[in-house]
Fold this protein.
Amino acid sequence: MAAPPEPGEPEERKLLGFLDVENTPCARHSILYGSLGSVVAGFGHFLFTSRIRRSCDVGVGGFILVTLGCWFHCRYNYAKQRIQERIAREEIKKKILYEGTHLDPERKHNGSSSN
Amino acid sequence: MAHAAQVGLQDATSPIMEELITFHDHALMVIFLICFLVLYALFLTLTTKLTNTNISDAQEMETVWTILPAIILVLIALPSLRILYMTDEVNDPSLTIKSIGHQWYWTYEYTDYGGLIFNSYMLPPLFLEPGDLRLLDVDNRVVLPIETPIRMMITSQDVLHSWAVPTLGLKTDAIPGRLNQTTFTATRPGVYYGQCSEICGANHSFMPIVLELIPLKIFEMGPVFTL
């Protein structure tokens, strides 16, 4: 987000002029699923009722709900993944630092499992 | 640092800034959906053939458009308050630096381990070396260790200033007669820039802040103290 786009990197694409879907995690995924949900909901409603205006309303409502739902789901998983990455990074650092000493996390783990 | 015509936030160099960027993404998505809904409503209003000048009751619609914004505001407020309280946590800093604003330069004091005090002036354009950044580089940078909680005590000797480093998510006012505190932990080494963020006179735009964040092992060897 901060550096100017390098050649080869995706260009900034901003929906409504401000939502950067390329560089915001989960944004592109949520918008695409929202669009799909909107088309399915709107078209499905039209097939059952043949009401164009109301089907458009259902489509817009479907877009908002599906986008929000995907967004929260994806961001929750992204946050979990970041926490796991941070824990893994800390463990790797500890492993490198303490390998072969009495503080070696692997030695502690093997010791407790053999007991 | 920011690149030309940058509108978005800079990459995060502290956990707080990462949280702020996450919250910013969340708020922006909510704003986008609200804008989309409003644009759709505007489109419908402009293209309808229906007219009714006798509408008097619309209880259900009024209930919906009162409750729904309240829910949206709660959805935005909860993460916002979480980060607000997170920024106020003080987690046993290892190092305390004092930053004093003057017209128009900063003074930094490293008094924990010795009495190092120095001024930090912007490099005038005539004194820039090739590769230096105009209006951002300074003669003496603030050298600090990474992955270490650091406390900044900020004040001013004359008028209001503000000590800001966007990549760390920091902005604290320097107020004469008052000592403000902010803490941060940098996660990656590098050189990071900020600018005075409170109007303080003619050269308000020409008193930047430059942090040089280095690994703790190298910081302990004392490059700061060989000034």
Observations:
- The beta strands of chain A are 14-15, 19-20.
